[in-house]
Amino acid sequence: MEKDSLVEKLTLQSESFQEGFEILCKSFTFDEMAKNFLHLLRGNFISTKIYLLYKATKDSDWKSIQSQEKFSDDDLSLLSLNNPTPIKYFRGEKYNAVVVLPLSDFSFLGILIGGKLGGGELNDFDKITLQILLQVFDSAHKSFINQKNEKKLIFELNEKVLQLNNLIDTGIELSKYENQKILFEIALGRIVILTNASSALIIISDVQNNIVENQITFPQNIWPESILSSPHKIDSFFEFDNMSYRIVLSEKETRGGTTAFNDLDEMLLQAVTRQVHASLENDFLLKQSLEKERIEKELNLAAAIQQKIIPEKLPKIAGYQLSGINIPSREVGGDYYDCFDLGEGKYALIMADVAGKGISAALLVSTLNAALHAYLEFNLPLTDLADKLNKLIYKASPPDKYITFSIIVLESDSGTLDILNAGHNPALLLRKDGTLEQIEAGGIGLGMLDLGIPYSGQTLSMNPGDKLFLYTDGIPEAMNSAEEEYSDERMISFLKENSGQLVDEFIKLIVEDVKGYAGEAEQSDDITSMILTRE
Amino acid sequence: MSTEFNLISELHDKTLIIKTEGYINNTGGEKIVQELEKHANINKLVLNLEKSKVVNSIGISHLIEVIEKLSQTNGKLVFTNLDPTIEKTFSIMGLFQFAEKADSIESALK
Q1: Per-residue pLDDT tens for A336-355?
Q2: What is the pLDDT of residues A58-73, one digit of tens each?
Q3: CB pairs under 8 A between A and B
Q4: Domains of chain A
Q5: pTM score
Q6: A124-174 and A3-25 are packed helices; what angle lies between their axes, rounded to 10 degrees?
Q7: Domain count, chain B
Q8: Do B1 and A226 touch (CB under 8 A)?
Q9: Computed from CA positions of residues A501, A505, A508, A512, in that sequence, does the dihedral angle turn out positive or negative?
């Protein structure tokens, strides 16, 4: 063929080559690209006996593409990677040309070009055309690989953005749930997304008894054992509130199957585990705070109940002055005082102290108050009254709770005092002449024992100018910051030195004296006292 | 290993409706691709993910393959009933550049 004619034909074909390149570049898959290339070859060489083969790596086998044709070993031996040039031409053989084209991804395209329709070998134009078409395919393939890599890079970048976003969302989402099962299910769902794990498991165990309390999997119907026996797995662990939590991930997925987890997966698992731990801690602290709030409300309620029981006003007793006070400590205490008008000029002065503080103490005071209201109506001897109260309080109280109790029934006309002291601080009777009598007759505290031990009473007479002082241990046992007690001695001295005061003033002064003595020290117990003076 | 994934499909003319249930991972994604490949000449795939709340990136790569296969025949993919978490995931992964979303199957079929 003349040189000018060859150039002219190639010039005319150039537009066709360009079009072929564009078609190849539009291919979505390698197979589609190969199919389009096959059409180009067959069209250009006017032959149906053109076959494409593909070799993924230099060590893999040739595979036919876009054809069901079976190739003999002789055919395949022509496709040698050791050929000095990609194209080998033959004359009078089965194939006119054999091509082994190395591709940019280290794979190989093999081409077997048989006879043209109507016979004939490849001429110079065909050979140049083949060279150009191979260049076109190589360029299109490079473009295809670049696009593929670009897509992969974009996918990986988006995946990283997604991981970061998921991690942030996981922290927010996990902090919302109080129900632990939902919390764990969401955490497992999130961590499998973050790491592409095939499945996940959380094992919750009681640390002290080493017992597995619960196992939750994602997806839900997987046996925990199948996750634990997986060859590819990672886990994390933490302990909180006597429970241990182990999160296990198994089988990191890829498009080709499964693989081992990497360092990033470990970090993501640790991050989600920390979020779960923090969520459990927050929930625990919130519950504690709510419990504390609930207890404080109960204590306030108990204090309110107790303050209702303590009399706002004491009855007026003709020929006598009576005053009393109760100053509760910070916690709800169990001090109680009262004066019941029994009618016919008789009055019952009560002073009591429940061992312990809090709601149970307040409830016992309430019980004692109700029982006194009930029993005092029957005008029982004090020893019988104490016996009944003892039995009642014994049944109503826990073993460590009892009440020290003092009752004095005054017959106001005669000044007779009928006295019973059940384990309480002795009442003090200060005679007009300064003589002090300590009244201890009685028995054990109410509710301590129910062994039928009899109570004993005492009768005294109160004369004009005499003073009867009742109190709880909050006065003599009040402590200063050096932890020294106010003491019985100081209290008695104060009583004697201030015996000329009116009862209201006396109560005010003794409270001031006790508080002044305690100074900055916190009031540890209720301060309760009552004083009766015969005019 | 079982991964608790199921799907059912219905064909309406040239529209294939697939409803999935469970984790869309490698297994789930493969099943969706295989279901599409069973039907020739599809120009719309409606993928109802109402019962799938978790999808990982391998599952997403299969969904991208579905989009590419449909593109070859000028078909399109429409997701319906998406969980907000999955919708956000697809948005970040750029799927809505090549696929649509609808609130329900009915609106996807319009």
Answers
A1: 999 999 999 999 999 999 88
A2: 999 999 987 888 889 9
A3: 76
A4: 3-148 (3.30.450.40), 175-284 (3.30.450.40), 310-534 (3.60.40.10)
A5: 0.62
A6: 20
A7: 1
A8: yes
A9: negative
